[in-house]
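Continuing from the previous page...

OK, I double-checked the sequence for WD repeat domain 93 against my notes and this is the correct one:
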Amino acid sequence: MKPKKLGRAKMPVYTRKVPTGIPEPWDSEDSADEERVDPDLLHDSLPQPFRMIGKVLDGVLDRAWGVISDREAARVTERSRRKIPQVEFSDEVKLPVKANCLACTDDGKYVFVGFSCGISVISAVGHVRTATWEQDRVEIISIHCTCLGEMAYLIATVDDMGVSRVFAYYADYIYLIKLINETKERNKRNNCTKIELSEGGDYAAVLIDCNGDSWIEMYRFPKVSWLKELEAASCNQVTNMSGTEVAKFSPVVILLKIKAPDMLSGTSLKCPFEVLQKTASVIGSGLNHMISAQQWAEQRAIFKSVHSKYLDTGTCEMKAKARLGSLFFLLPGGLCTFTDGTRSLQGPPSAVCVWWRGDHNLYQYLLHKRAKEKTEDEAKPSVVWPNAQEIVCSAISRCTRHIALGLMGGLVTVWDRCLGLPWSVLSVSADSPFNKLHFLDCLPFSQDPFFPKIHVLVTCKNADCHVITAGRGMDFQVMQLCGRPADAEGPPTEVLSVHFLQMLVLLMYRNGTIVLLDTSDDTVVATLVLPPSHCLATPWSPVYTLDPVNQNLFVRADRYLCPEEDQDEEGSGSSLYVFSLGTTSASEPQREAPRKLRTLEDMCNQYLKERLVGQVTGCT
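Thanks. Re-ran it with the corrected sequence; updated structure tokens here:
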């Protein structure tokens, strides 16, 4: 048997069935697309039944978003198709000269007009001129008024030379009572930049500027004596004053002298006892501390060196003196105001609150002197309301219980001064600093009297408007207003809350357009139309006033001039146009319902019922 021949063992050979190819180059665009892929899609899909639940939820969200988009598109289309009602003027009052300022009385009977050579009185109903006070080279630029008594009115004015005058209108005569900053030598006279009267004419606040310094002088008026003297003067048929002669009336009394707060600086106090002794009864201003001037300078130098690239040149230097921001008279009140929330309490104001630009604090001063205080001494605040940021604007409710402060950084603080606590602190996402705040009235009887909803309109310098609905604590809502007429050119130059129409504001634009906007649904309610021959006078600073009783708007309009006419000519077509806002069909849904004053018993009963319901709900 032949032995088998051993051959070579065959090794397995692996060959490629597809020829090798050169890989494609890396595409940067594809890589960018891969980077933009949603990370959630890179994960493995969820197991059942979670995948089915996810698909159902995605479908529900898609359908809901489609419904929302369709409704929004339909709303925009309907708004564009809707014809905005136009309100024609009801009357025209022709003026012999151009009016610089207007003011309407609280009872809606008279309108006071300030012009280039005095003041005039016009009947708010018949629109007839009843009295005039004139003096050469006296151009009135600011005017305020209030009811002094039955058929007696107090008028406060400021002219272009910084002179403040107090008048009284009684029995169709204007009497010059007092020149506030009167001096024998004109060079030594302090300039008055602003004067405000309290409701009822008990007090007056006068802002004085002199050599860069600013302070407020608070005056108390002898209104009872003035009423008797006015009646006697009327019986004697005293004619209008010539302007250089002042009628013999009882003198006024200066109560307080409020100076601007000092800027923070170093002190020489070395222990807490000295700080407490220096502070006395005023706590919260931040001026009394133990930081020396050297420490203050060192900390400022460190701050500048660390944050130099974020600071502009000169921004770290503090101003020498602050300027007045706003001033409000405060009515007396307890823990709660037993009114409808919009009407003032009876009686004169008990305090005044002030804030200054560049400062964080709101100061409250009592309107009575203590036995140890002198008029020449600087008044000390009774309460200091500290805030987190610098105050830029403010507003106060008509019952003076709530004070809204707009702060730097988009913060809004609503203080409840009767409780001494912040009612609400919220942030508004605005791209521009705040400009003004306005309280919007709403029907108080549809709300809880102890925890009402407060509505505040916030306007920014870039013309953005926001409506804040603030409850107690963190209960708030912010809505941005976008509604504006199609023919409006640029942002509104004037925004005014119309108190006698619920949630309505008046907007005036630079091109002369005047509209009423409903802030509850961001809808233009009506457009106020001037005659084609006239245009809104000084649209960047309109001259107007509201009559709260007759619900009328008085606005000045000038006639379009021909090229050959002199623009400064007296009586060149200036008029006051009257618009009846309360009688138009467009404002029918926004009119105030008849109010019924709540009694203390009714409010207590409602409060106890709510407490009982809350306890029962908590037990169950």
